[in-house]
């Protein structure tokens, strides 16, 4: 078993965490009681009339225990039901008072407590983590001026332009209503039916088919506020803003085959990864990035900044990194914190304001409304995890589950009985809605500036590296290939894909049994606007930082007779660089090295799997390698690491495992002297070769080695 670096809970680092302390139940050294505090000395037998007689109604302990159990479940979130949360803090680097009066963005000495919840969108609470989906990235800032919720995703755009279509979109992507199939998957008829009929989904669908939809970790994921918001300074001047989160570990993804296997091997993969990193003291960090745009530039870039299906390329307006978010404490209780946290896009503080993005406007209603059902009434803001650290005083009252005990007789405004309290805040400190001039007729119509649905879908595709493009096409072939109705497949190809890229359309058409289109048809949805950039390198994962192996997990595969000194050396180098090495052996009993030393494996070939690691290492040792070759699941480690393009280090005799795994024909020829690392496979002629560990570390830092990927079928 792996011992975590910090056995005890991290100390509460923030004001919010301290504010939760009175609500925590610490039961160490305490006896059992009922909810009424009555001591209980027997809880295994109900109260009966005779040892073989009926249970008695007066058994209040039984009744309470059963009643509480019967009502443990609450409705799961209608979307984003599966998630994982963490506490932390945010600190701005320098004052942004030029743009905003929000204190958490103007006071660099302030550590603002936060709670973050990451999620998938379509699956139920118990679904797997590594499905192809958008990831939610919702942050609650407990600022001195009240709660600010930045409820974003790991993709910068959205499927639809107007929130009134949200129920339609969500119905189409969720399991189909007649048989509740499939769980947590977009690869089915109703989603693609919707997509084929609603071209505004095109851009986001490209993101959903890209590697961004199968992140390696929540810790290695970007976040986006998606909409254009406003920052407002003390003089009332507004600046348009797009919010970004940039993970300091870089943005990294899995491959589809791996993600599907992880769903079975460890459905909690992302949740566990986040939890363990925080327990280990490897606190996830993200920088807050801002794209600041003058109000008058709202239409400058060939699209409308109020249209949530568009992104603003970083090459046009750079992302300024203004502060850092650190997640440093796991929740004490999943339900009380992660499940009960209630985010709301309408939770803004003075200095931040909305825009007329019709998707955002709908969200301002939906998030408040949904909690009434989910959290059982209007008092959810009083739940400990939702309660602001800023003082709360108002005339709201009563309702199910009220926690606060107002002490004043005056429950209305204005009043004299309560001395006029709570009195109105000074307008300079209060939230003041931006006095935007609005002039228009009531009309159910979309602005013409929202009409171009394809240019940015093309821009996204063109910005990807060749391997990313190949993954995206393969994802389309998989998803559309699962659609049963041919007319839907035809519409996806002929109404959507052909307008994005002819080559994509033709390749997908062939894969899904549809006649390949010949030329790009003019889009019915509107004329293509000219993009201000041809490609945006910032959108490709190829260009993410790849300079560290911090927190990466490496499996060291051993059997009796492995090269012990070599393993110790490689481990020391990798762990010194911040990676985690787990020894994987035949059983959990000690394994003996060729030098006679014993090592206790962390996992076995059965309990671990290549897909759960970033890289695989097999030390030399004739006897050990021969034993590994006899165990198919051990050989699978090498085969899968190779096929998934992960760093692979095989020293001495271990190099021959590539033959056993059946991938040697895809690998470069073995080295004839010393050590060699090509395409992420590091091999040496003998064990204990100089430079072996460092070459391996470099290969792990590169994340994946796509040159090894099998070429697409001709
Ligand atoms: Fe939403 C949850 C993100 C559009 C309605 N949404 C939810 C969560 C995230 C997002 C991260 C989970 C929050 C949590 O962890 O508790 N949603 C987005 C983004 C969108 C978006 C980035 C587009 C830019 N959402 C959107 C629209 C509507 C909703 C247009 C409705 C008009 N979203 C909801 C919801 C949820 C929700 C139904 C489910 C549970 C909840 O709010 O608290 O109200």
Walk me through what this model shows.
This protein is of the alpha+beta class and 714 residues long. The chain has a domain at 553-708: Class I glutamine amidotransferase (GATase) domain (Rossmann fold), CATH 3.40.50. The protein is built from 18 helices and 19 strands. The protein has helices at 15-20, 60-70, 166-173, 189-197, 202-209, 256-265, 269-279, 334-339, 358-374, 455-463, 466-481, 486-500, 502-511, 564-576, 622-629, 632-643, 657-660, 692-701, and strands at 83-92, 112-120, 135-143, 146-153, 223-224, 229-232, 238-247, 285-293, 320-329, 352-353, 553-557, 580-585, 591-592, 598-599, 603-604, 615-618, 647-651, 675-678, 681-684. Strands 1, 2, 3, 4, 5, 6, 7, 8, 9 and 10 form a ten-stranded antiparallel β-sheet that branches. Strands 15-12-11-16-17-19-18 form a seven-stranded mixed β-sheet, with helices on both faces. Strands 13-14 form a two-stranded antiparallel sheet. The longest helix is centred in the middle third of the chain and has 17 residues, at 358-374. The relative contact order is 0.10. Residues 1-12 and 524-528 have low confidence and may be disordered. It binds CIS-heme D hydroxychlorin gamma-spirolactone. CIS-heme D hydroxychlorin gamma-spirolactone binds next to strand 2, strand 3, strand 4 and helix 9. Residues 77-80, 83, 117, 119, 136, 138, 151-153, 158, 163, 166, 226-227, 308, 341-343, 359, 362-363, 366-367, 370 line the site of CIS-heme D hydroxychlorin gamma-spirolactone.
Shape: globular
Report the sheet with the most strands, covering strand number, pairing sense and barrel closure: 10 strands, antiparallel
* Category by helix and strand content: alpha+beta
Q: Specify Rg, calculated over alpha carbons.
A: 28 Å
Helix content: 25-40%
CATH top-level class of the domain at 553-708 = Alpha Beta
Mean pLDDT: 94
Please state the second-level CATH architecture of the domain at 553-708: 3-Layer(aba) Sandwich
Straight-line distance between termini = 47 Å
Number of continuous helical runs: 18
What binds here, in terms of ligands, is: CIS-heme D hydroxychlorin gamma-spirolactone
Number of E-type strands = 19
Give the low-confidence spans: 1-12, 524-528
CATH topology of the domain at 553-708: Rossmann fold
Task: Quote the beta fraction.
Answer: 5-15%
The CATH homologous superfamily of the domain at 553-708 corresponds to Class I glutamine amidotransferase (GATase) domain
């Amino acid at each position: 078993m792996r011992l975590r670096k910090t056995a005890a809970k991290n100390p509460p680092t923030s004001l919010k965490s301290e504010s939760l302390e009175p609500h925590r139940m610490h039961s160490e050294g305490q006896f059992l009681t009922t909810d009424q505090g009555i001591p209980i000395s027997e809880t295994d037998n109900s109260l009966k009339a005779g040892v073989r007689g009926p249970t008695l109604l007066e058994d209040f302990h039984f009744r309470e225990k059963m009643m509480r159990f019967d009502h443990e479940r609450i409705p799961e979130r209608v979307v984003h039901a599966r998630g994982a949360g963490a506490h932390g803090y945010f600190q701005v680097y320098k004052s942004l008072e030029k743009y905003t009066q929000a204190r958490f963005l103007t006071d660099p000495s302030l550590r603002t407590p936060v709670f973050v919840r990451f999620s998938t969108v379509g699956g139920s609470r118990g679904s797997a983590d590594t499905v192809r989906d958008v990831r939610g990235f919702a942050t609650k800032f407990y600022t001195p001026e009240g709660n600010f919720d930045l409820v974003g995703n790991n993709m910068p755009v959205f499927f639809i332009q107007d929130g009134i279509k949200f129920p339609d979109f969500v119905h189409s992507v969720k399991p189909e209503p007649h048989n509740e199939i499939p769980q947590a998957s977009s690869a089915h008829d109703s989603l693609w039916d919707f997509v084929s009929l609603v071209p505004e989904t095109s851009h986001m669908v490209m993101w959903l088919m890209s590697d961004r939809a199968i992140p390696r970790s929540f810790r290695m994921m970007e976040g986006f506020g998606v909409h254009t918001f406003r920052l407002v300074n003390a003089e009332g001047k507004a600046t348009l803003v797009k919010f970004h989160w940039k993970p300091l570990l870089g943005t990294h993804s899995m491959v589809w085959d791996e993600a599907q296997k992880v769903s079975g091997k460890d459905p909690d993969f992302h949740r566990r990864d986040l939890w363990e990193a925080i327990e280990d003291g490897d606190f996830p960090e993200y920088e807050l990035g801002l794209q600041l745009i003058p109000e008058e530039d709202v239409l400058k870039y060939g699209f409308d900044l109020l249209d949530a299906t568009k992104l603003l390329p970083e090459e046009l307006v750079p992302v300024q990194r203004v502060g850092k978010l650190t997640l440093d404490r796991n929740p004490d209780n999943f339900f009380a914190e992660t499940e009960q946290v209630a985010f709301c896009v309408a939770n803004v503080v003075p200095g931040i304001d909305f825009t007329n993005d019709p998707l955002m406007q709908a969200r301002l209603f939906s998030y408040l409304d949904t909690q009434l059902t989910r959290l059982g009434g209007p008092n959810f803001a009083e739940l400990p995890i939702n309660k602001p650290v800023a003082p709360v005083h108002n005339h709201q009252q009563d309702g199910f589950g009220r926690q606060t005990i107002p002490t004043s007789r005056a429950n209305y405004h204005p009043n004299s009985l309560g001395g006029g309290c709570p009195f109105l805040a000074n307008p300079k400190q209060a939230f003041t809605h931006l006095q935007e001039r609005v002039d228009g007729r009531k009309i159910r119509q979309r602005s013409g500036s929202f009409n171009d649905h394809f240019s940015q879908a093309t821009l996204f595709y063109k910005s990807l590296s060749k391997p990313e493009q190949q993954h995206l096409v393969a994802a389309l072939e998989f998803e559309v290939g699962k659609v049963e109705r041919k007319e839907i497949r035809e519409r996806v190809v002929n109404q959507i894909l052909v307008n994005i890229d002819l080559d994509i359309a033709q390749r997908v058409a062939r894969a899904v049994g549809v006649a390949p289109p010949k030329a790009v048809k003019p889009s019915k949805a509107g004329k293509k606007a000219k993009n201000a950039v041809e490609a945006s390198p910032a959108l490709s994962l190829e260009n993410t930082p790849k300079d560290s192996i911090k927190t990466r997990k490496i499996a060291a595969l051993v059997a009796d007779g492995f090269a012990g000194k070599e393993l110790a050396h490689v481990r020391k180098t990798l762990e010194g660089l911040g990676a985690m090495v787990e020894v994987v052996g035949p059983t959990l009993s000690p394994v003996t090295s060729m030098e006679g030393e014993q090592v206790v494996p962390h996992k076995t070939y059965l309990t671990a799997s290549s897909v759960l690691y970033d890289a695989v290492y097999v030390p030399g040792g004739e006897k050990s390698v021969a034993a590994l070759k006899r165990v198919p699941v051990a050989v699978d480690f090498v085969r899968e690491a190779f096929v998934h393009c992960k760093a692979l280090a095989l020293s001495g005799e271990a190099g021959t495992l590539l033959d056993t795994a059946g991938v040697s024909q895809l690998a470069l020829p073995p080295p004839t002297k010393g050590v060699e690392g090509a395409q992420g496979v590091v091999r040496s002629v003998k064990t204990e070769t100089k430079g072996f560990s460092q070459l391996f570390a470099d290969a792990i830092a590169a994340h994946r080695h796509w040159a090894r990927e099998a070429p697409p079928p001709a």
